[in-house]
Design brief:
The protein contains 10 helices and 8 strands. By secondary structure, it is of the alpha/beta class. The longest helix has 17 residues. The chain is globular. The two termini are 19 Å apart.
């Protein structure tokens, strides 16, 4: 399943609105918006819901995290082979709510490359984004943690952080796919992010906790096409 830019990655996190049957419903709404507009919408449900979602929709599905481990005795960890077998085509790495050491980020990117999983590594500022870009993930996503879940979009409140990230990352890898996130909640936020040089957004509560997630998904999708 090929990803295309611009893209919207919807992180389901652990909200009840995106757990179990609700995860399936939200994924189907994302699929509907993607099919109607031609936009690339990726969903990232919890590990427990990965197989249910991946087997039920035709849009790309990411895991929220994988650990840099080999099969064996790692109770409670997330195995790359397991998320791939469940139907995931990629994974988030180093989200601000699941941070890793740089050495583990590097190992996880290498593991994803080996297993054929798309790696989307999160960073909290331009400098960290540049450091991560040097590790050659498929996607970097810059998210100031203080704006996550705030409803105050990074694209409006801190546009210079996005432009600095784009500039630094492109110096290291001109072909790197760059996303931004934190507080993205309107189609205008998405449009501004794209105009600032990103190839899409990583979003969570702006869609997951919306009164009408489909309408927001459709508006976001329209903003990318």
């Amino acid at each position: 399943m090929k990803l295309q830019s611009p893209m919207i990655i919807v992180n389901f996190k652990t909200y009840l609105e995106s757990t179990g049957k609700n995860a399936l419903s939200l994924a189907k709404q994302a699929e509907r918006a993607a099919k109607e507009t031609g936009a690339c919408i990726v969903v990232a449900p919890q590990a427990a819901d990965l197989r249910l979602v991946a087997e039920s929709v035709e849009i790309p599905v990411f895991a929220q995290h994988v650990d840099p481990i080999k099969p064996g005795s790692s109770t409670g960890h997330v195995l790359a082979e397991a998320v791939k077998e469940a139907g995931a085509v990629g994974t988030l790495i180093n989200h601000s709510e699941r941070q890793l050491r740089l050495i583990d980020i590097d190992a996880t990117i290498a593991l994803c490359r080996e297993k054929g999983l798309v790696s989307c590594v999160c960073a909290n500022n331009p400098a960290v984004s540049a450091a991560i870009a040097a590790l050659k993930p498929d996607i970097t996503s810059m998210e100031p943690p203080e704006l996550i879940g705030s409803g105050i979009s990074v694209s409006k409140s801190k546009p210079e952080v996005i432009t600095d990230t784009v500039q630094l990352v492109k110096r290291i890898d001109s072909k790197m796919t760059i996303l931004c996130g934190a507080g993205i909640s309107t189609a205008e936020d998405v449009s501004i992010a794209l105009k600032l040089g990103t190839q899409g957004v990583l979003v969570a509560s702006g869609i997951v906790k919306a009164k009408d997630p489909y309408s927001v998904l459709r508006a976001f999708a329209d903003a990318t096409t």
